[in-house]
Amino acid sequence: MALIDAALAAAEAGARPLLSAAARRAAEWCEKQMEFVLERGKPEKTVAMKVGSDRHAQLEQEVVERVDVAIRSAEELWAVKFMNFIVGTNQLMFEGMTREIPVSFYHPARPPGDVAVPAWRTKHTFEDVLKYFKVTCHTLPRSQEQLLLRYELQEDHSLLEEYRFTYDARWFKDQIQEVLSFWIGSREPKFVAEEERWKCCFCKFVSDCPMIASMPRC
């Protein structure tokens, strides 16, 4: 079964959607680890991971007011995800700043159909939301050529480093296509490169990984 189907099945069961930018980054960290996550579930968060999540939430609250939405179906789960993207994108374009825009992959091979979204108590259906989502994607301006990445210390949020780099549209598209080939099951997941096997010291699935036999003890 393609991993994209496993992720959609998890969403239908009420789990958080895994076809997201965060999932893509996790696959870049280690595709084999992502396969384990989809098959066995996410391991419990570490203290450092919880601190990082809390920091993201703190920064988001500076510019975004979150509201609770009762979700009763897989369609509502994805609809809320798309609506968060639409609202965040509008805030970015009209106010110049937003945080935590959810970026998810839409899989056309699994159309959601004309399913009502009762949680919003409006006439809009999932198909309407998907249409607005696509329109919003097309209204986004092109990315600036120069981008900025900041690293901060968890302990006191002090700045560690700023990294400026040039946006390369072709490289980005190639990376997306490579990741999608993994998600749709057209190739096997890759293990980490030899020079990055230090990552295995932090992996909860290391004892079950086929590569462990060739890796030195951490």
Give an overview in words.
The chain is built from 7 helices and 2 strands; from the N terminus they run ααααααββα. 14% of the residues are buried. It is mainly alpha-helical. The protein starts with a helix and ends in a 35-residue tail after the last helix. Helix 5 runs parallel beside helix 6. A hairpin with a 6-residue loop joins strand 1 and strand 2. The longest helix has 22 residues, at 74-95. It has a two-stranded antiparallel ribbon with strand order 1-2. It folds into 2 domains: 1-43 and 142-218, no CATH class; 47-140, no CATH class. The protein is globular and about 55 Å long.
Summarize this structure as a short list of keywords or feature phrases:
218 residues; mainly alpha; two-stranded antiparallel sheet; 7 helices; 2 strands; globular
Write the layout of secondary structure elements.
Layout: H1 3-12, H2 21-29, H3 31-40, H4 47-61, H5 74-95, H6 126-139, E1 146-152, E2 159-166, H7 169-183
Antiparallel strand pairs: 1-2
Helix pairs in contact: 2-3, 5-6
Distance between the termini: 33 Å
Number of domains: 2
**Biggest pleated-sheet summary:** 2 strands, antiparallel
Mean pLDDT across residues: 78
Question: How large, in whole angstroms, is the Cα Rg?
Answer: 19 Å
Give the spatial strand order of the biggest sheet. 1-2
Number of strands: 2
Give the strand content: 5-15%
Helical fraction equals 40-55%
Helix/strand-derived category reads mainly alpha
Low-pLDDT stretches? 109-123
Total of helices: 7
